[in-house]
Fold this protein.
Amino acid sequence: MAPPNGPDGRGGPGIEYWSMPPAEFAVANSTWRQRLGFSYGDRIYRDPANPSWTRRDRSIRVPYWAVVLATGAGPVKRIRRLRRERRTYRRLSAGQCPRCGYDLRATPDRCPECDTPATGGVAIAVLVLFQTVVALPAVGAPEAAALAAVEKYQATLDTRPRWLMECSTRFAVEHEMGEGPERTGAGFFDCTYLRDGGRADLRLVTSGQWVGPPNRRKPIGPAAGREPRWRGILDGWGMSYEVPAGDKPAGFAMFCPDGRKFAAKVIPALKGLEAFEGFIAEDPAALADILRTAPVLRASRELADVGGTRCLRVDAESPEHGTYAVWFDPAAGHYPRRIVVEKTGGHVWWRKPLKEWNNFLPLGSRGPTGALAFTYTMDSAELEDVGGVLVPLACRVTAVQKYLDGNVKTVVLNCRRTRLDLKPDFEALGAFKPNLREGARLLDELDRQHPFKWAGGRPVPASAE
């Protein structure tokens, strides 16, 4: 046996691995341990040509079946425990008893079926969440829980009742670089919102805006009127147009054959309550769609307190739209109680990446400037139970827009529903029927090469006879 290569002819310690067929595990005259596949060896080798060189080999032989038995019992037991814990977590999130699954919405303090107290359920929830995080951090549970919450939220939106809402929004504006009284401002929007399944009819009724402190405000923009000045409709297709004075038929409207793609232009007219509808940060897509397609989507293991409500936090990172944090309320149809959206650089704002907008003119800036980062926060969310139906009541939306020249514009909107009718007479209200003159031009924002027109009470391609 030749001595190994290395300094002064000596080799260091090492490990070698090889496998043997089962037939070679047992040899003649072996002990019972060797018959089972176990053995231990300790040999010393010497080189006659180099008396100073020796090598000692220690070996341990273990059969595969022993490895399986030794390591398999623990994971099987752990998997069974995790399945029980996740079942408990799902029941708690759905407002059910963690022990028997009984619906606790009518008796939130104690389960009438198995007499489990609600406090016990909370303790179990905390234990379940802690154990799940420690025991199995990478099995996809956060992603699955997040996606389930998004789907439940979408299901709530899909099953909304028909309604008529009247909403009022008051807002305040402040520019960090503004000088004198014009660095602050305020205004209001009043609108009517008709909803019937997937159809929507939004009407901006009155609005006004001022600059300056409360004691020295001066109006800016068009004077507020009593007639609807703007209207948006979703009815399979989407449409928005400015209402002429005297409620005369309009001769032009923005249009899209796919109302879902046009919703981002119509729904934000709610000026605050649109956050419940899934629009908050001038996104071209709805919140549920953005979260579904985000490469990074995860749910927290612990329910967070949001204004006294226990909510499930879902975080998403979308290369196209930005970073999102949404606190869903499991006890309220997974309506969001809080939303935070951050956009920078290549994230889409309205129709194009934020970095491509270079014509902002915030008060205090010396000229057109680009955007650095926009952050939108929805909080102070209130829902009202009306005849067993949860309906958005109020919320606050704060938009902080940072610009490349150092200016910062902050807008705070407080929106509240002032009237609700769950049995509206849509026919008498002319709901979902645009007041357009025959042949009115419809400009498709997404495809201006193929214009439409209003003919026979419906949109048709302009090239149609």
